[in-house]
Design brief:
With 76 residues, the chain is α+β, with helices and mostly antiparallel strands. It is 36% helix and 14% strand. A hairpin with a 5-residue loop joins strand 1 (25-29) and strand 2.
């Protein structure tokens, strides 16, 4: 089973998913299911004090959440 968020999910939903599945880090998927970032429990808890209804995209931008590496072509 894959557990992930989308950028429009709220901090409230993120915390609920983290607690339900007992995880501290969740991928955030954009269009076509590509990962656009990672959201940690620490990011969620920091944003919770501001507004639990903030979208995770704003939290990722404000916290400098890690982004997945860009694919690179490797020449042999």
């Amino acid at each position: 089973m894959e557990v992930a968020l989308v950028p429009t999910d709220t901090v409230l939903r993120a915390l609920g998913v983290m607690e339900r599945y007992r995880v501290r880090l969740l991928p955030v998927l954009g269009e076509a299911g590509r990962m656009v970032g990672l959201l940690s429990r620490e990011h969620v808890m920091s944003a919770w004090e501001v507004d639990p209804l903030l979208p995770v995209s704003l939290v990722m931008a404000a916290c400098g959440a890690p982004r997945p590496p860009e694919p690179r072509l490797v020449s042999w």
